[in-house]
Amino acid sequence: MVRETRWQTVEGRDRVYNSILKRANFTIRDSVPGDEREILRLCQRVFAASLTLEEWNWRTFGNPAGKTLSLVAFQKDDGRLIGHMAGVSVDLAVGRISRKAFFIIDSVVDPLQKGRGIHAALSMAIAKKSGELAAGFPIGLPNQQAYLPCLKMGGTHLLTIPVFFKVLDWRRVVRAKLRSNFLAQIAGVLGRPFQQGQAPDKRTEFTLQEVQRFESSLDELSDRVGPRFGICPKRESSLLNWRYFERPGSPYSVFSISSGGQWQGYIVVRLLEKWGLRLGTLVDLFFDPDCAPAGQLLLCHAEKQLRASGADVLWGLFAAPQTYQKLFRKTGFFKAPQLKGLRRFHFVADFITIDGLRPDLDRRDGALLRQADQWFLSLGDTDLA
Hints:
Helices cover 37% and strands 28% of the residues. It is an alpha+beta fold. β12, α10 (292-308) and β13 (313-319) form a beta-alpha-beta unit.
């Protein structure tokens, strides 16, 4: 898709932004206390989202990486909230250098107000704000409707993140999809050979345990292993405690694996119910790439726990090195095919504003940021789980 040149510079975007607002009957500003209830109502109406006020405050103000950027669009005449976009602060480790990004969430416009440039104006505003405040840039997983407009506005497609899945109960999967007990029984028989992966090698001594709080062992693992991933959202104890344990009504279970008193990795899982199925969700998996047996034991332990909880399917979203992909295949996972009608998780970044404001940062690590195979991402780095 050919981008329009007017989106390609900070000055060009400013002209487009000012032109939109000059003729519009809406305005854009930072959200302020009191806006959250209207934002949540709009998200509920458009997305059927169930975020509570307590979760909103946790997400907006509790993040150790920084306060969430939150912008709103209001009607000029009656003050009604008609759009919202937010960016959760993310600290990226780019090699051994730290960069700031903002993961875009809650990109929502009142359906009755579409076609008026509200989404475009919010996108340009949040890109500019993230660059000016923190030398940061927006990243995200736009849905099918938003993906092409993101590219048109100058976004860079970095990669399409693969989905890995493993069916534990074929009969329930088929019954949920086709409502056919007969076909479900057939699928259950045919699927048995594919439900088990290779057993892990238990000759090496590892210790698996459930984690109630991340501490210095995680920080040591992150310092030791993190630089191996090229570009990776930082995994520090304060950040992960906020993400997984301090979330109101936390639905996560966390397990670590260690050897010789040293952490070799951890896994975060949860159970979701959707489409009439119980989805065992691999939220995060982080281990030393040189210690694949540790990753395999974590996956097998997570599968055992999720099976016991009644999971029908295991799934996870990972942009990861070949070590991970080989491990998923070895443990019986498949990479979901990119079929028509199935959502593709396109990972997009907007470098236009930050490159214009800070060309020195672009010269330093801009080329690395654009290398798809250097990124490490999981569901835990998004708002999807």
